[in-house]
Amino acid sequence: MKDLSFSLPSATEIRHQIRSGQRTALEITRACLGRIAQRDPMVRAWISLNPEAEAQAAAITADDPRPLAGVPVAVKDMIETRDLPTTHNSPLYGGFRPAADAPCVELLRAAGAIILGKTDTTEFGACGRDAMTANPFDPARTPGGSSAGTAAAVADFHVPLGLGTQTGGSTIRPAAFCGIPALKPSWGLISTEGVKRYAVSFDTVGLFAREITDLVLLADVYNLPEAAPLREGRLRLGLCPTPYADQLAPEMRAVLDGLAKDLAPVADITPFDLPADMAELDALHRSVQHCEGASAFLNLARARGTLLHDDFHARVDLREGFTQRQNFEAYDALARHRMTVETMLEEVDFIIAPSAPGFAPLGRGAGNPRFNALWTALQLPVLNLPVSGQTLPLGVSLIARRADDRRLLEAAPKLLPYL
Predict the structure, then answer these.
(1) How confident is the model at residue 231 (pLDDT cuts 50, 70, 90)?
(2) CATH of the domain at 66
(3) N or C: more exposed end of the chain, with fewer CB within 10 A?
(4) Is 119 among the domain residues?
């Protein structure tokens, strides 16, 4: 079970402590490494740790003006790092050492962050081998995939911040299962160069933290666009159980049923029913994901196929029955659906929806992505908000128009006290 006797400050508080001289970056880094030494034999969030982390932290001074100076960060092990292996949790890449950082990592370093290490992932962030990571709240359960290690490391106080990715639900679902906030930004706002590609129409770098204020720090680092401020007064939320509501577990149904009452002090909730033809969103997502995945993994299947998990051969062979012609038809259908939802969002401030079917399931599987994939396919920004008072973590998704990511971060503090 999660050990709450240790509490790592938020990234925002760490910056305050370093600037004021209360603690040094080296002390913070050593506290994180100590926590990892204590907890990771059970949690198994980490693939590798940075042997230079303490030396890098020691070089951070109290007057360093950079926004993340001295803040330890976890990086999912399918994002390239110049000083640490990038294995993708694949036997094909066990010793792979990239020549340069992915841009999303280079920006963290430029902001002064300490890259503490690489965290476990579902193989290539897609399928195949599961991460070995356990859910900190119940080690018998999954932390969710594919960003399993990052979600668990942030939730278990190993680090205050982490990078993941999302092609279907690989940021929002693990955040929900581990009880932490996370932002899946609007598609295309953060470069995915240097991140193993799966489906380029959906692949997105995801941001994990334990505090919304820390996600704001990351939004600044990644230059997420400014958005129109929230209008004054109560929020207007559209409740969308999605076309797949029949797959919700009782615990999530109860949360959704109680939202109108719980959020009554700050928000008005109205039904947000997607048009009937949007029930095809999950199938359209899978069509694009599998067809683009066929291209992404073709070279590995042809050149190094004996060590490639059969799941990836299935992608390359399009065994699920999709065709590349259907892929282009799916592009067109998704474009129409995106325009429709953008218009519908003019009637509410945000959509609120389930982040996962229910509690994290037993085992190490990634979990059901159906409640995330439709929003990913629509390229919308999604913020996981943890729900309190549950026996295990649950989360709801706050969803906005494309490029309105910062409005999600502005609204979240109004809602969280009531969830």
Answers:
(1) confident
(2) 3.90.1300.10
(3) N
(4) yes
